[in-house]
Amino acid sequence: MTQAEKELRFQEKIDREIKIEPNDWMPDEYRQTLVRQISQHAHSEVVGMLPEGNWITRAPNLRRKAVLLAKVQDEAGHGLYLYSAVETLGTSREQTIDDLHSGKAKYSSIFNYPALTWADIGTIGWLVDGAAIMNQVALCRTSYGPYARAMVKICKEESFHQRQGYESLIKLCNGTPQQKAMAQDAMNRFWWPALMMFGPSDAESTHSDQSIKWKIKRFTNDELRQSFVDATVPQAEILGLTIPDSNLKWNEERGHYDFSEIDWNEFWQVVKGNGPCNKERLAARVKAKEEGAWVREAASAFAKKRAMKKSA
Amino acid sequence: MMEQSALFEYVLRMSDDSLILAQRLGEWCGHGPILEEDIALTNISLDLIGQAISLYDLAADLEGKGRNHDQLAYMRYEQEYKNVLLVEQPNGDFAMTMLRQFFFDAFRLPLYEALMQSPVEQLAAIAAKSVKETRYHLKHSSEWVIRMGDGTDESHKRAQDAIDHLWRYTHELFYVDAIDHALLADGKIPNMETIQAKWMTTVTSILQEATLEIPKNNWKFEGGREGRHSEHMGYLLADLQYMQRAYPNMEW
């Protein structure tokens, strides 16, 4: 079979909604796109543990502490499934992590913003996990089988994360004026970065067309961003929080909310490493890897010793 | 009434052990040597928080002053916390954290097993639920002690250093005073000597398998059970209590 025939067959399968599995033939570019996207997603889960993990020791009561621990633990679990999904494409977890540490691989820029108050934890759950769900629900039907299956499990947990975040904000917004102000401040700081999570606008997005054709992506960045805004505005109204955008208003004709242009300069600055916490986040991951090297070496040396004893 | 307050103190000591160790383990989140350990350490922390909630609820009932588990966990002064010094010790490296965990798990498991027989029904029920979790914790920490001890030269040395450092805090796990004597006389709690013997059996056998040694130095530190803590405790509580102290009388 020629390359062109293989590609034709591959596209036919995609068009007929047949999942691509690890041992199936796939174009190199499809594989690379998936490795890039899934590893970026895995890194986001793992780096995302840092801003929230930072609040575990300071959670205001035992129930919130337990919920936050459970949430961050889920994120580590998501990281694991996703690194495993990348491994089905022939790239080891070690390699994937090295690419993160060298700066070659990216993670969601949202985690380069600091979590400054307890309200940020609720807001991250509500807006950040909410935005992630918009992306991820669509990914449950992505064309690559292992990724789609990982996403089904991840989405169930993410929707719990979003609900616990919202529920925590309900408490703040019905609490004292100080608590309400804390929630509004978090909203002011996280709204725009949350909208940026959907990536560059469709006009600027380099990977979009081919990814849609291969059904890795089902919706464009702008479509998902619009769905998120439409879903979130009424939720903010229930909380009594103001969305920091004076141009936000319902457009009867479009059947959607209109909103201001994102500050793309800020977006690209953070992507390039100039966000408030880029250096700290990456440094924390590198430190964990370096300081843990002796632990991993011990585990593998021990496993070898035991294997030798068994075979002896 | 006297006995009620002895039981309150006893349960409070157990609650504080769980809470303070959970607080320490929570510090690891996102910084573990491997993702699987981030999951394991947060999971153990979560179990301990769950145990602390049940134990504080029981303590609050016994006390009968209308305090709830959060008030007990968050709104006391340092001297009122009765955890052993071992659990408040800083995480150090992974070996220090895992040896601290191992010494504690090896103590908690036989304690819970024995408390399942306690005539104090709520305490027996908490023990029955927690014993399953603690069995996993001990399995996890024991396996790491063996891996580190019998892994590389470096891991062996780090594990031995952790043992040498932490050994002085282990005796306090078996601390007894008038509170314990009163409850033991009534058959409400197990004899600490029995628990200590079981602890020693576990520790001896795991350290032997790990090719690690029990220190000759028998210096003993204690004070936690009476509310005299190490310098580390104030900082730990500053984090733990931050929100409740900075924003008093609010619900979260």
Low-confidence sequence ranges of chain A = none
From the 3D coordinates, which CATH architecture of chain B would you assign?
Up-down Bundle
> What's the helix count of chain B?
10
**What do we call the CATH homologous superfamily of chain B?**
Ferritin, core subunit, four-helix bundle
CATH fold-type name of chain B: Ferritin
Question: Which class best fits the helix and strand makeup of chain B?
Answer: mainly alpha
Please report the distance between the alpha carbons of the first and last residues of chain A: 49 Å
Main CATH class of chain B: Mainly Alpha
Number of domains of chain B: 1
Estimate what percentage of residues of chain B fall within beta strands: under 5%
The H-and-E topology of chain B, N to C, reads as: HHHHHHHHHH
User: What is the total tally of β strands of chain B?
Assistant: 0
The number of helical segments of chain A is: 13
Major sheet description of chain B: none
Number of strands of chain A: 2
The helix content of chain A, as a percent range, equals 55-70%
Structural account:
The complex is a heterodimer of chains A (312) and B (252). Chain A has helices at residues 3-15, 28-47, 49-53, 62-87, 93-101, 118-139, 145-173, 177-196, 208-213, 221-239, 264-274, 278-291, 293-311; strands spanning 249-251, 256-258. Chain A contains 13 helices and two strands; from the N terminus they run ααααααααααββααα. By secondary structure, chain A is an all-alpha fold. Helices cover 69% and strands 0% of the residues of chain B. Chain B is built from ten helices and no strands. In chain B, α5 packs across α7 and α5 runs antiparallel to α9 (192-209). Chain B is globular and about 55 Å long. The mean pLDDT of chain B is 97. Chains A and B meet through α3, α4, α7, α12 and α13 of A and α1, α2, α3, α6 and α7 of B.
